[in-house]
Amino acid sequence: MWSDPLIIFGGAFAAALVAGSTGFAFAIIGMAIWLHIMPPTRAVPLVVICSITLNLVLVWRLWGAVQMERLKPFLFGALVGVPLGIAALQKLDATAIRVFVGALVILYSVVMMRRTHMPVLKLAGRTGTALDGLVGMLGGFMGGATSLNGLFPTLWSGLRGWDKREQRGVFQPYILVVHLYTLLWLGGVGNITRQTFSDLLLCLPALAAGGYVGFRYFHRISDQTFRKLILILFLVSGVILCL
After folding, report:
1. What's the pLDDT band for 115 if we cut at 50, 70, 90?
2. Rounded to whole angstroms, how far apart are CA atoms 10 and 233?
3. Three-state SS for 9?
4. How many angstroms from the chain centroid is the CA of residue 66?
């Protein structure tokens, strides 16, 4: 359809706008928009490549906040989760994944709206490391199946009681590394095609523009206001997908 290129461009811009301001949620916005015009096997590799491009810049800007010892359990968990998620991607139909993603977006929005009341888990030693690894595995599974690898690590980082910069020092590089790992697996099963690169050409200018505007808004409006706008957008997108 003639409108498909506009939807691809608009989805990339909206996702980059949000990710440029918050450091995450590119996959949530991108999938919520692109799954209306393309199957998951086409949308997932596109989201992965676009997110890698954007996150390379974001991780570079936050490199001082990255603590490798804290990050390692998440990455080791993802080594197991990503192949399992990709196997699920080959077997689930488009409608099932679309509804599943929509429900996750709604759940994410509701949880984040209540985040100020969420408890802080004081975990230490092997218990904390093991649970971090489990969350990393769940994130990897989601990344392989839907490209939403940052959802669980982002929520979990908030529960761990880390400050904003410490949280981004975990989930920002996690998203980047797991996307790269997922990309290798997708290439191995033939999901990356000429269509993927054709879609990417439409997305590149949108990524640059959306990321730039996102950074500008991040510095000009309050975190509270922008956070509310993002959550409203998540909720609306999730409801539309489920319907």
Report:
1. low
2. 14
3. helix
4. 18
